[in-house]
Design a protein that fits this description.
Layout: E1 2-3, H1 18-21, E2 22-28, H2 33-37, E3 44-46, E4 51-54, E5 63-65, E6 68-70, E7 83-86, E8 89-91, H3 97-104, H4 108-114, E9 117-124, H5 130-134, H6 143-157, E10 162-174, E11 177-180, E12 191-194, E13 198-201, E14 205-208, H7 212-224, E15 241-252, E16 258-267, H8 274-277, H9 282-306, H10 317-321, E17 330-338, H11 345-371, H12 376-409, H13 417-470, H14 473-529, H15 534-590, H16 596-613, H17 626-631, H18 655-667, H19 672-681, E18 693-695, E19 701-703, H20 710-724, H21 727-730, H22 743-760, H23 780-786
Parallel strand pairs: 2-8, 2-17, 9-16, 9-17
Antiparallel strand pairs: 1-14, 3-4, 4-7, 5-6, 10-11, 10-14, 10-15, 12-13, 15-16, 18-19
This protein binds adenosine-5'-triphosphate (ATP).
Domain Kinesin motor: 21-361
Biased composition (Polar residues): 831-846
Main location: cytoplasm
């Protein structure tokens, strides 16, 4: 065993792409014997590889009274939620660990070999199958073994050109303490923060392994030392977070370049409510610590996805430890384990909501592009333009390199002393100036990338606001309390980072400017004194051009890669949307419910899509968005510019726009049919009434049959009055009845007010300024007041509910099953297994019962994965 004092993790890069990297998989385990015995209801129906329904509708047997079948008696039972969830992958009860490996981690290894850190989390309530998925059994090895096996196979394919060194560590985080599972000790290990290495575990042992088979022994040994103890929900419940980490060091044989990546596989402790486990005393404290870590983990993931500059890693040991395995250049897979049984109804629901949130981080990014101003076609145009500019820059670079090579030969060995002296002075000055210029260019590139992220996020904000306008009432609250604040926070964070970067740029810029003037003066003097030095002067100028050109090249590459991601996501969304649209339309048509208006609208969309596909690029003049132009240009004369990506906001001073707003607010709410008819007629259709004939463009006449009735009109008017009362009145979410369809109307008004507020404040930062635009960061104070509409929400991610003491009376606990893994071991060496008896009235007590301390590894069967009877005897 190799003992290290400090482990050197690979340094993660930017944290910008976190959201796009999370993949979420849900695994539903089969019913266990207990659940089968109780004949529980199934609360999960797996629809296909990506979808499941939680709490599906049940077909109740017909109810007869006096021999006559009665209408539905559903009022006696709780309504089925019938919630449909979509994930990257859904594995039903019949899917094996091999299937989970194929869906979850197989592809990830390619990213690992490319230099990305990778993490796999298994999340779920106690007994949901986390450890089975991660570790498995001898017959069904878990994904840790399968992944490592595949890793070794991958490595053997690269043996010719690379050398590999693989080390593994296995630790647990229990009650906010870190323990080494490969070198057990009752003394916790300390986490240390080193500026150059990041967070390290002092004294952690790392073992080198050569084949996957060695891993089995190691996991066996580690698992024996893991803290476990029985709960009501799982007789072998793991009460700690286990973190298995693989460090792969790759050295390229030809270039000697070395790279270190880390694969982390984290078996999280159960996310169940305290009531589910029936825990009290020490166990309750454990539960609280588990939830604390899970909450901290959820917060970090959300913040990373928001693009926050501050990520609260320090909130728990687990997140501190995983700092470089989350976000940044890390690929993350989240596996949510659930039980299909109605016994675990609440836990399953909570797990699915957690997983859906993680999945939504991704989806919200996908979605924001499809409706945003920059749609796929525009992104492709911009991308094409950037590619062209990149090629041009490369061509210029080549020429510059050739010129530089030529100029360095000029003068050769015949230079006079005066020339040599001038040359030395110029070179020294050029060195200083060059270093400053490189620094300035690097800062400007980072700032442009931030501006791009801000640009994309601003559009996401608008998109979410737009969604709120169209969404159903059910989705409204979530959009207002979660989505909009999240997008908003992200925009603000980017703006803040951008402003910070601007001040640094200004500092370096003034030094660069001063040194540039000094250098220019020196060059002028040199030319005056020694005109034959013209080549040297020329060379200095070429060098600067070359630097700028190189930096522009790099920037274009970065922008292209970001835009490419956007295009891919957008294209995927478009395809999905069209498929769905087609399906819905054809279904309606099949039932004879597709009115001509809808058919026309449908055909219009399909035609649009077709023409989008046929765009020819060669003869199109690219009208690049000025914002994108700024982002993709490194102009040293105007290095900073305030952000102004709050486009498309209604201009409150513009009478036309005001009229339009008013029109929107006075047409009030029209029925869907009205909207369709409007689309046909291309003009507002304000007061359609039942039976009103409407002439369509194709001369067909249709009659509205389902216009709103007068009370709707009244309610729309009432809402309109509320909306007109101003932001103070609508700040209070409580005043709006979320069940009232018209609330969308008021909420849309809020968004407009928000947007208006954000667009009014002036950017105060000064020279050198390119455009007199607004900066969102300076609107923070104003916006914060306005945004109290997000009200009840404290703007913090709420991923996991912390466990609170609940009305649970210690309930009957079955006698310990014939399972060995779930032995309880306190860190101080005493036993946790304090279950008394097997009677119905048995209770869970604490250590006070005083059973003899036994270490878990002394009690388990030879194989790591078997959970066979423990070797100790429980006192009866
Ligand atoms: N997909 C599956 N197929 C067969 N058995 C399974 C499956 N998933 C879980 N099990 C069984 O269910 C029981 C509980 O699973 P496991 O110990 O993995 O739960 P867990 O989520 O890790 O619980 P805890 O958080 O309490 O440690 C085990 O006996 C395990 O063998």
């Amino acid at each position: 065993m190799v003992k290290t004092t400090a482990m050197v993790p690979s340094r993660s890069g930017s944290t910008q792409n976190m959201a796009a990297n999370i993949k979420v998989l849900v695994r539903v385990r089969p019913f266990n014997a207990k659940e089968l015995g109780q004949n529980n209801r199934t609360v999960i129906e797996v629809l296909d590889e990506n979808q499941l329904v939680f709490d599906p509708k049940e077909d109740l047997p017909p109810f007869y009274y006096q021999g006559v079948q009665q209408p539905s008696k559903n009022y006696l039972k709780r309504a089925n939620k019938e919630l449909r969830f979509a994930f990257d992958c859904v594995c039903g009860p019949n899917r094996t660990n091999q299937d989970v490996f194929e869906c979850a981690t197989k592809d990830m290894l390619a990213s690992l070999m490319e230099g990305y850190n990778c993490s796999v989390f298994v999340y779920g309530a106690t007994g949901a199958g986390k450890t089975f998925t991660m570790i498995g059994s001898k017959e069904h090895p878990g994904i840790t073994y399968l992944t490592m096996d595949h890793l070794f196979q991958t490595i053997s394919g690269h043996q010719m050109d690379r050398e590999f060194d693989i080390g593994v560590s296995y630790i647990e985080v229990y009650n906010e303490n870190v323990y080494d599972l490969l070198q057990p000790s009752s003394t916790p290990l300390q986490l240390r923060d080193y500026p150059q290495y990041g967070v390290t575990v002092a004294g952690l042992s790392i073992r080198n392994i050569k084949v996957a088979q060695e891993l089995l022994d190691m996991l066996e040994f580690g698992n024996q030392n893991r803290t476990q103890h029985p709960t009501d929900a799982n007789a072998e419940s793991s009460r700690s977070h286990a973190v298995f980490q693989v460090y792969v060091t790759m050295r390229c044989k030809t270039s000697n370049q070395c790279r270190m990546v880390k694969l982390s596989m984290i078996d999280l402790a159960g996310s169940e409510r305290a009531s589910a486990t029936g825990c009290i005393g020490e166990r309750f404290k454990e539960g609280a610590n588990i939830n604390r870590s899970l909450l901290a983990l959820g917060n970090c993931i959300n913040k990373l996805a928001d693009g926050s500059s501050y990520i609260p890693y320090r909130d728990s040991k687990l997140t501190r430890l995983l700092k470089d395995s989350l976000g940044g250049n890390c690929k993350t897979v989240m596996i949510a384990n659930v039980s299909p049984s109605s016994i675990s109804y609440e836990d399953t629901y909570n797990t699915l909501k957690y997983a859906a949130r993680a999945n939504k981080i991704q989806l919200s990014l996908k979605k924001n592009i499809i409706n945003a101003d920059m749609n796929a076609a525009q992104s492709m145009k911009v991308n094409k333009e950037l590619q062209r500019r990149l090629e041009e820059e490369e061509k210029k670079n080549k020429e510059l390199r050739a010129k530089l090579a030529l100029s360095s030969n000029v003068g050769g060995g015949n230079a006079s002393e005066k020339q040599v002296s001038w040359s030395r002075r110029i070179t020294a000055e050029e060195l200083v100036h060059g270093a400053l210029e490189s620094k300035l260019l690097a800062l400007m590139s980072q700032q442009r990338v931030l501006a791009l992220r801000h640009y994309l996020r601003t559009r996401a904000f608008e998109h979410v606001a737009d969604l709120a306008h169209r969404s159903s009432c059910d989705a409204l609250e979530q959009i207002y309390t979660e989505d909009i604040p999240r997008q908003d926070r992200a925009v603000e964070n980017y703006a803040k980072q951008y402003t910070n970067r601007n001040s640094k740029i200004l500092e370096v810029w003034s030094n660069w400017n001063a040194s540039g003037q000094k250098l220019q003066k020196l060059l002028d003097e040199c030319l005056a004194d020694c005109p034959c030095m013209v080549d040297t002067v020329q060379k200095v100028k070429l060098q600067s051009k070359y630097r700028i050109s190189e930096a522009s090249n790099d920037l274009h590459c970065k922008i292209i890669s970001i835009m490419k991601d956007e295009i891919t996501v957008s294209a995927e969304c478009m395809t999905d949307t069209f498929d769905m649209l087609k399906e819905v339309y054809l279904t309606l048509k099949g039932y004879g419910h597709a009115p001509p208006a809808l058919t026309l609208q449908y055909l219009g969309i399909i035609n649009k899509a077709k023409s989008a596909k046929n765009i020819s690029w060669s003869d199109t003049t690219v009208n690049t968005d000025p914002d994108i132009k700024f982002i993709s240009t490194l102009d040293l004369e105007s290095p900073i510019s305030p952000l102004n990506f709050t486009a498309n906001l209604p201009d409150t001073n513009n009478a036309d726009v005001q009229d339009k707003d008013n029109a929107n607010t006075t047409i009030d709410i029209v029925s869907d049919t009205d909207n369709l008819a409007d689309t046909e007629n291309q003009k507002p259709c304000n007061n359609k009434r039942k039976g009103t004939p409407i002439k369509l463009n194709n001369n067909e006449t249709i009659i509205i049959n389902d216009s709103f009735e007068s009370e709707n009109l009244n309610s729309a008017k009432k809402i309109k009055t509320e909306a007109c009362m101003g932001i103070e009145n609508i700040n209070n979410f409580g005043k709006i009845d979320p069940n009232d369809l018209n609330s969308t109307f008021v909420l849309a008004e809020k968004v407009n007010n928000l947007k208006k507020a954000s667009s009014k404040v002036e950017f105060k930062d000064v020279q050198p300024v390119k455009r007199g635009l607004t900066d969102r960061t300076n609107t923070l104070s104003t916006m914060n007041t306005q945004r109290t509409i997000n009200c009840s929400n404290d703007n913090k991610a709420r991923i996991v509910k912390p466990v609170m003491p609940v009305r649970r009376i210690a309930t009957a606990m079955p006698p310990p099953r014939s399972a060995a893994f779930g032995s309880s071991v306190a860190r101080d060496g005493s036993s946790y297994r304090t279950v008394q008896g097997g009677s119905k009235n048995a209770t869970v007590t604490d250590k006070s019962v005083g059973l003899k301390a036994v270490r878990a590894r002394e009690r388990i069967e030879p194989h790591p994965y078997s959970r066979n009877p423990p070797r100790y005897a429980v006192r009866k």
